[in-house]
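Hey, why these numbers?
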Amino acid sequence: MIICHCQSITDRDVHAAIDWMRAADPHTIITPGKIYRALGKAADCGSCMPLFLSTMRQNDNLEVPMHLRGLRQGLESTQENHDEGRRESHRLP
C-alpha cells in the first residue's frame, strides 16, 4: 500500500526501514524523520503523516528501548520542583 504519494513510499518501505534501524542500533528511538532519511527522502506536504504514523505503530520493532521508558515522568517531576528563578508572573512589568 502506498503511504506517501509525494515520495512514493510504501508500507513495506516503512517496515523495512524500521527493521533495518532496529537491527543496526537496538537502542535508537525511531521517528518519522529518521525513516524518511533512511529511505533517502524528505517529507513534502505532510498529508501522509497520520497514515505514516499508523503504519509505524504496526511494526513490533518500533518499541521504545526499556532504559528510555519513563523519562518524561522523571522530567515532569523535576520541572515541578524547579522554577528557574522566575517570578510568579512571567509578564514584563
The mean pLDDT is 83.
